[in-house]
Amino acid sequence: MEAALAITERNDSIAKKGRQKAQIKCDTDSVAGCVSQRACVFCGARVVLNPITDAIHLVHGPIGCASYTWDIRGSLSSGAELYRNSFSTDLKEQDVIFGGEKKLAKAIDELVEKYHSKLVFVYSTCIVGVIGDDLDAVCKAASQKHGIEVIPVQSSGFIGNKSAGYRAACDALLRLITPAEPKKIKHNNSINYLGDFNLAGEAWIIRNYLHEMGVEVNAVFTGDSSYAELKTAPAASLNIIQCAGSMAYLAERMESLYDIPYLRVSFLGLEDTVSSLRQIALALGDADVIARTEELIARESALIEPILASYREKFNGKKAAVYVGGGFKAISLIKQFREIGIEVVMIGTQTGRQEEYDTINELVDEGTIILDDANPAELERFMVEQGANILVGGVKERPLAYKLGVCFIDHNHDRKHPLSGFVGAVNFAKEVYSTVCSPVWNFVR
Amino acid sequence: MGLETTNYRNVNENPCSMCMPMGAILPFKGIEQAMVILHGSQGCSTYMRRHIAEHFNEPVDVGSSSLNEKGTVYGGEGNLKKALDNIIKVYEPKMIGVLTTCLAETIGEDVRRITIDYAKERGITDLPIVSVPTPGYGGNHPEGYFLAVRNIVEALTEKTTPHQKVNIIIPNISPADIRELKRILNLMEVEYILLPDISDTLDRPYEKPYTKIAKGGTKIADIKAMGGAVATIQMGITVADELSPGKYLADAYGVPLYNLPIPIGIENTDLLMNKLSEITGKSCPDNIKDERGRLLDTMIDSHKYNFQGRSVVFGEPELVYAVAKTCFENGIYPLVIASGSKNDKIRQLLSAEIELSPEPVEVLNEADFMQIRASSRKAGVNIAIGHSDGRYLTEKEGIPLVRLGFPIHDRVGGQRLLSIGYTGTAMLLDRITNTLLENKYKTYRSVMKKKYFRDSNKRIAGES
Ligand code: SF4
């Protein structure tokens, strides 16, 4: 058998859309030696919490983990800049042998004294779980000592995959927002916006739309958020979730704890943006809001539709491959590509869930390859076999695409331009144009 | 009080280095048809792949044993063996490196034994599996790099008949630098074995069809023969003996070791050229002498501009030493010299220059960027030279950064930066000088105005 598919254990994670509904194996541990593109629990937790701008983010572990995640997201801030630092207890051999609790306690003391933050997140890494440092106890003591919140994030690298990290982050957030007296919370007719990390100002863009619709945003999880803002979260009347992979769990918990219903939205692409804004307006059920929303949609659509149409002409017959982190993003991308006249022929995710794969399977055309937790050998094989002209992925996938002579779109978390909302839909088409129609390909084909 | 406690601190604020296995991956990428597996949880290898891929703009495949909770509690032997199986199936490598991570080391995995057992069980005789213990907390990436080279040498070299080749141990320099070194060696007609050699593997040409492992890299047969070489030149003057591949070759096979700095700067390059002549009896060819002359010309052309530079140099010890020395040579006095690694040799080696420096020089050992930033601000540094994480100095203190070293993840072309030899030094100097000039031209109008202009300087129209 061909090398790319030599690992039979991977067979169930790869499907081809056909007459029969494809069941795909997902949300399991990566197969050893498969060069998975996935990150770890710690990484999942860090990327979710890191955009909280006025918190001290302290990595309890050896230096590498903190090094690789310093300023990891292009999350913008309208105020504090504390979150852009990477603090680490920089564990050394002797700390691993004798335990790192004392060092951690001192590290928290030093940082709190220096930066006067009201909020500290302490992330555990692989070895912390193994050497048995009692993170909870150290954080509790520090919290009492300084009269601030010091929240442990249980994110030892080996206790699952990135999704487990999302969950650890949500648990930390729940701890943060739990009010002293949960019963007394009154809902204030505003909404929380979950799962936007304000990459290139995306949360601001969506906030602006909502504002125009007459919808008050209470707290954003976690793009450009602050300690004080997040604390108010239980008072909202509705949660909307953009990145479901990271935030669905938090939304579910908030529904049961505080009676806040939630709505899944997506602001990737014109179609999803329009339908999401409508859903939000309908959910709030205010006639005025609905009217203003329709105005906004009409105006913005009229502005961008001709632009998208002009790009569409240029993309005749192109085929796309998608390999991204979450399932919801993958679903949006299928629609978004369709909007600009491009068919998706291969699609996969790192952390997609069964129901998301079901939706993907419904959306794509016959013959499309669907894969979970793909590796470079598989990506290479299917991009070539399916005749993909363009790949959407993160930093690790980019050089592979280029080496294969395939165009590339960055959908990673340090991008510098927004891909959300109406603006984002145009940016996306523009980016596709910049790669698909570059003269460079004349020289290599 | 020993140095260990001097540098001990409770919190590292913005790291200036990465962890051991990261450094250890790179040498394996410079060996023909080699693959690497990290024994630990999935994240370590993903992060490192991301960093390396971004720097070199090349696909970087690194396996992981993807240890989960079960493996952590009951031992990861099964996972590692499975990882080896799968890597062999998909990549068909000629050699495999197995590196540990924090996790594997902490739970006490005996990787050497596991890999030996594995080879026995599978009846593998012609596929070297080299293991390297690289706990993330055991040192930083520069130490991981040399430890990996040393382990490769220890595992592969054999007693061989003496030959005329010179071993050259390459530190973490760019593919372009390695190609430049080969050009010099070829011009001089020196026979050599370079280890490792990422010049093709991490800077490969666009070509079809794509291969999973890039062509190029040091041949395993060449590594085996290193014990019979006439000499070893190791660009590892700051490297501790226990990490030194050259020292091992000297001890085990009696190959004379010459530890030299990376040939950046005129003196450092002279050292290399002279040593090569001394070892081989061949003289420096005329065209290289011309290049030396051109470098001198470059230095003279720029000396006044350079003299306005006061630098901070940071990064891997070996590179920091060579670059700091070059700064001294050119009057771009380095007022802050910093490495994230624990390495006392930098200061020792530069003591003469530090003594003669017109301004005080601070050498930071095991530094983080918070310290580097504070020292740079205090010293009035106006140019930074080092890897991408120094962009923080630009952003927060307005100190422009000349990118050099690893990783460069916010610009393209880290793999194409040429900085060694007479020609490379001239190119590096131009990058530095031009950055100083750019900054000067950008600001001198406003600086002068702020300094000297007062309202009284303005003659009111019609009054004269
Ligand atoms: S410091 Fe340790 S756990 Fe963190 S990335 Fe490095 S090897 Fe992995």
Helix content of chain A: 40-55%
User: What oligomeric assembly is this protein in?
Assistant: heterodimer
Q: Sheet with the most strands of chain B?
A: 5 strands, parallel
Largest sheet of chain A: 6 strands, mixed
Overall average residue pLDDT of chain B: 94
What best-fitting shape of chain B do the alpha-carbon axes yield? Answer: globular
Bound molecules: iron/sulfur cluster
Mean pLDDT of chain A: 92
Specify Rg of chain B, calculated over alpha carbons.
Answer: 24 Å
Major β-sheet strand ordering of chain B: 12-11-10-13-14
Supply the helix-strand structural class of chain A. Answer: alpha/beta
Largest interface: A-B, 72 and 73 residues
Helix content of chain B: 40-55%
- Report how far the terminal alpha carbons of chain B are from each other: 72 Å
* H/I helix tally of chain A: 17
Count the strands of chain A? 14
Q: How large is the share of residues in beta strands of chain B?
A: 5-15%
Look at the helices and sheets of chain B and give the structural class.
Answer: alpha/beta
Describe the structure.
Chain A is of the alpha/beta class. Helices cover 45% and strands 15% of the residues of chain A. Chain A has 17 helices and 14 strands. Chain A has helices at residues 41-49, 63-68, 93-98, 101-115, 126-131, 135-146, 162-177, 202-213, 227-231, 244-258, 270-284, 287-314, 327-339, 354-363, 376-386, 397-403, 421-436; strands spanning 14-16, 56-60, 87-88, 119-124, 149-153, 191-196, 217-222, 238-241, 262-264, 319-324, 343-349, 369-372, 390-393, 407-410. In chain A, β8, α10 and β9 (262-264) form a beta-alpha-beta unit. Chain A starts with 13 loop residues before the first strand and ends in a 9-residue tail after the last helix. Chain B has 464 residues and is of the alpha/beta class. Chain B is 48% helix and 12% strand. Chain B has helices spanning 3-7, 20-29, 42-56, 69-74, 77-91, 102-106, 111-122, 141-156, 175-187, 220-224, 245-253, 266-280, 286-306, 317-329, 345-349, 351-356, 369-379, 391-397, 421-452; strands at 12-13, 34-39, 63-64, 95-100, 129-132, 166-169, 192-195, 231-235, 257-260, 311-315, 334-339, 362-364, 383-386, 401-403. A five-stranded parallel β-sheet of chain B has the order 12-11-10-13-14, sandwiched between helices. Chain B has a four-stranded parallel β-sheet with strand order 3-2-4-5, with helices on both faces. The longest helix of chain B is centred in the last third of the chain and has 32 residues, at 421-452. Chain B is globular, with a radius of gyration of 24 Å. Mean pLDDT of chain B is 94; it is low at 1-6. The interface between A and B is large, with 72 and 73 residues. β3 of chain A pairs antiparallel with β1 (12-13) of chain B. Iron/sulfur cluster sits between chains B (19, 21, 40, 44, 47, 101-102, 136) and A (62, 64-65, 125-126, 157).
